[in-house]
Amino acid sequence: MGQCPFSFDSLIFATSLIHLILNATFFIQAGLDLPKKAIENTVELLRNDATIPFIARYRKDQTGNLDEVQIEKIHDLYKQHLELEKRKQAIIKAIDAQGALSGDLRDQISRSTSLSDLEDLYLPFKKKRKTKADAAREAGLEPLATMILEQREKDIKQISKKFLNAKIESIDDALQGAKYIIAERVNEDQKVRSALRNLYRSRAVITSKVLKAEADKAEAQKFKQYFEWEESLKNIPSHRFLAIYRASKEGYLRLKIEVEQEEAVSRILRSFQKGKNKLLKDAVEDAYNRLLKPSFYNEFLGEAKNKADADAIQVFASNLEQLLLSPPLGEKRIMGIDPGFKSGCKVVCLDENGSLLYNETIYPHPPQREGSLAGKKLRSLVNAYQTEAIAIGNGTASRETEHFIKSIKFDRDVKVYVVNEAGASVYSASRVAREEFPDYDITVRGAVSIGRRLSDPLAELVKIDPKSIGVGQYQHEVDQTKLKEKLDFVVMSCVNRIGINLNTASKELLSYVSGIGPALAENITEYRKTTGPFKNRKELLKVPRLGAKAYEQAAGFLRVKDSTNPLDDSAVHPERYDLVKKIAGDFDLEVKELIGNTDILEKVKPNNYIQVDLGLSTLRDILKELVKPGVDPRQRISFFEFDPSVRTIEDVNAGMSLPGIVNNITNFGCFVDIGIKESGLVHISKLAKGFVSDVNAVVKLNQQVTVKVLDVNLESKRIQLSLID
């Protein structure tokens, strides 16, 4: 994400490029309250393959200081606009091929701003299987249907005798055929569909009912609360819709989306009926039940699913962002421990760069109970490898291992941290891990991942498919393409927000840098292997296939320590090096003397350096960066301890106050790790006093909290918690 996947050349659209950009701008403005010029410039940058992080960081003057969220929304609407334009051209071509494209219809199609309106216009011309209405037309009943609709004839039954023939043998057959034709006309009427769409948007109800044959199955019980459910479609929360949707897909519930039939039929009749007419009413009821109702069920099921997907994906994205931006311990010598009982605890010793120095397995827990031997080994390893911190995975035997480690009297000060190991097993069995550690088994790789997560969560987590990290809700029910696109964007956003070391970053980390991607990341790491560390940013241009465009997009987000140019270890883009040199020269300083020189930088007047392509926003960013270049925006890691008396769910009782860490956030609340296998749920109603509409406004992922235990269900292994004192 960040580059638009569509090309204007692929659009068969006979207008100028400028006209297309203007159309896109108007379309986007209808959905976003942003200045026209900012949208125009952003669309132009996206069209020229600029990434969202690059635009947000280095093109603020063109966009009016839009942030990544706003630019991403422009990107998404721009993509929607191009999809809409492609669909318009396909429809125009299809109708024209039938010889049915009038000037008025072409204009209606061109003016459409939604896919639903567009498809309504196309509906009468869509190729479909032979219908009951088609058979009635072939039997010559079209004029009879028109007479019934016009409601001028008083004795329509008498008139219908004129339409009897070999195919139509009775008056009832004639009237029924005419009603089929009327039903199809009603179904294809734009005003009818628009009125019904408004009715569904405001009053549609979603209902679910258990299928009797499935009610007693154990798998169905997790959906028990939805066995008899009814709720307004427009108000249903995404997590509830996705639960019902999953249950219906798995065959446990029957799902319906409906409006009151009497109201729907009444609204349709207003467009046609001049007085009471049973034939017309019968035709309208048939149109509604046989054609319109199924059509709007599919349409609104799709809309509700898209909305629920968007909400769920946003929750996942927000959680992932917070996890990726977790505080790093930094370049420390770390011991990583993947705890276990029977299989033992896998121990690895890592250097400051996360390189594996040594691995060992200890057995301090049952059934072996080799605590004394394990303690001696760990003391020896801590001394031998000058370990500064120990990272323990939070899986099986975590609390027992933590208790054991803290009972050891080390000869040096060693901090002990419990690390979220979600996805570590996925990494350990991955191609990336096999390439990195071809001579070690998955247990060693998993322990290395745990240790590295303490040092730098972002650098390690980018090696894992974001969907495997497990911070979201109903991730398997949502659109997988949209989920991947969004999560990839979040990873790219976080990587570029922090900036990475060009000489130490893995190819996985490099692949998320603006303008790089997997192929160039591979080339960069190969170049490092053959020629040694990069001496400066400019040397990037020597990497095979890395041209001027990729360099422009990537350079500002890559850091080179001890470079021949001191600005290479900052977020100042190379395109502004001459400007910094001029500012330094104006104070008779070298660039390296200007960096960090607060007294001088405070005297710089940005207005003196404004240029045609350089405004105040960019200038202020540059000056801010020169004060503290390359600062990591992530917070410092803080020490945390679980309650030592709580190690299993049996130790948890109602009324207890326990320290915990928020480890997942959903729309209905958050889950808190209290140091045992089972996380407890803080329902949204128990997050704070008063009404809470946004869980993220109250808590953040990895936030340290104190929770009160409300209820413990040992049978279902569920714990209810509260953040309200």
TrEMBL record:
Pfam families: HHH_3, HHH_9, S1, Tex_central_region, Tex_N, Tex_YqgF. CDD domains: S1_Tex. It comes from Antarcticibacterium flavum. InterPro entries: HHH_9, NA-bd_OB-fold, Ribos_protein_bS1-like, RNaseH-like_sf, RuvA_2-like, S1_domain, S1_Tex, Tex-like_central_region. GO terms for cellular component: cytoplasm. Residues 655-724 form the S1 motif domain. PROSITE patterns: S1. GO terms for molecular function: mRNA binding; structural constituent of ribosome. The lineage of its organism: Bacteria, Pseudomonadati, Bacteroidota, Flavobacteriia, Flavobacteriales. It comes from the Bacteria. One of its GO terms (biological process) is translation. This is RNA-binding transcriptional accessory protein.
